Amino acid sequence: MKRNFIVMVCAMLMLLSANASAKTLVVYYSYTNNCREIVTTLTSQIEADVLEIQPAEKGLKYEANNYALGTQLLNAIKAAPNDASSYPAIDPVTTSLSDYGTVIIVTPLWWSQMAAPMQTYLFNYGGQMAGKNVGLIVSSASSGISSVVADCKRLVPDGNYFSENLWINHSSHSNRASLIQNWLTTVNYNTVTGISKIQTAQNTPIRIYDLNGRLLNQKPSKGIYIVNGKKRIAE
Q1: What global pTM score does this model have?
Q2: Residue 229 has pLDDT above 70, yes or no
Q3: How many CB atoms sit inside 10 A of residue 211's CB?
């Protein structure tokens, strides 16, 4: 009897571990709303939980005074990339990476580098992504993304990266649904992650609800909410 119980517990633990390894987390930061739209489109095609990274200091205009603040933040990181104090503060994050086998990072490009708040998140948690499947989607106006890829691999050095990254620039943003679907197919998302089939891209209207079922005009700054039937967390 005791041995049967132990076998059953071990089987349950193995099942839980397998389920965790098949889960995807989409982590994103969005300043101009482009990355948020990319994430909404992505999660209409795959099953994934979503974590939004938010700066601790609100209302900053990174582009003001000829991009002075944004440039200052990036220069501080570049000068001392191994110093935690070089990175701007972000809101606390409680989502556990141990629950996921795949992490897809969606980030804007700031002046040829990864946006500073996303760099902060990856500096703090990139080590926990070792051995996990890692995908990277970058939004930019027109600049290439090679430096953002380099930032990501510096901050997440031991991730199992997808075979290709996805770049969505200003001119291709309106075609993001087909670009994302083609990318998921190209990187063999189903095979690599062991997750169920990719859904066909479609133009689904965005509807945001609170947990009481009330339709919201915009996503809340904090807490749990529902977007097109999928639970999201704003931390």
Answers
A1: 0.77
A2: no
A3: 10
